[in-house]
Amino acid sequence: MTAIEARGLTYSYGGDPVLSGVDLTVSSGEFVALVGVNGCGKSTLLRMFAGLLRPTTGTVLLDGVPLTGFSRREVARRVAVLHQTLPPVPGLTVRQLVRQGRYPTRGALGMLWEPDAGHHADQALDLTGVAHLADRVLDTLSGGERQRVRLALAVAQRAPVLLLDELTAHLDIRHQLEVLGLVRELRATRGLTVVAVLHEIDHAARFAERVVALHGGRVHADGSPGRVITPELLAEVFGVAGRVVVDELHGTPRCLPDHPLAPGPAHGARAPAPTE
Ligand SMILES: Nc1ncnc2c1ncn2[C@@H]1O[C@H](COP(=O)(O)OP(=O)(O)OP(=O)(O)O)[C@@H](O)[C@H]1O
């Protein structure tokens, strides 16, 4: 079943379009990695998937229904977003945030009416490895701790679609592997659909089953990591000459970037042949 579909999406913040004709279908239960250079529109696309931005033209469909047909609460029941920032509420603790942050389950008076809300929040804190931080005040947390709390907040929402932007920002290598492994596990155990912006191509290769590369406002490549992550992609999309080898342990591609290609005509050229 299709979870999210983008049909002919364009978006402009006022100047030249950032996205100009994005077509993308994400099936239920898929883990899709979005890759591309800084500023190519990955976050913009995720924000449109979450209903936070309206496309200039084109349509986003959730479960086959145009997003515009859902209220904000209905969207939030279906789609959880990893927020870029935590609310600047003085004195708010991690547990309070994750319990109260379950926006879609709130009643008219802003009270949590779902009997399991506290349990789900505590479970999300456990799952994301931040239970020990539950009583800490948000603004005392380190960057990496805040990042994992943001993930707990998204997981606590228990929406079937998880949109993750900058998931591994601020995390050390162990925590990067842990959160990516956790997301993969959630996808397997809860059948979540995951769309994640990943800057580390090797992470995309290792953890996602499908990689979508945005370039020039469109989908430039879309397929399994083995098909999409190639020296040509490094050259055409990232402007980098490099090699791609197969990681024998995981059977996934691994990039060995060598040097930036000269800007201009060289960008888009094929990467040089591997050297010894
Ligand atoms: N609110 C805004 N107003 C004007 N321009 C914006 C706004 N938000 C983003 N942009 C511009 O739109 C383009 C796409 O931004 P976006 O954040 O979607 O890129 P991205 O691919 O997620 O980048 P990065 O990898 O650096 O996070 C960039 O050129 C950015 O400067």
Automatic annotation (TrEMBL):
Gene3D superfamilies: P-loop containing nucleotide triphosphate hydrolases. GO terms for molecular function: ATP binding. Residues 258-276 have a biased composition (Low complexity). Keywords: ATP-binding, Nucleotide-binding. InterPro entries: AAA+_ATPase, ABC_transporter-like_ATP-bd, ABC_transporter-like_CS, DNA-binding_RecF_CS, P-loop_NTPase. Pfam families: ABC_tran. Residues 255-276 are annotated as: Disordered. This is ABC transporter ATP-binding protein. It comes from Nonomuraea indica.
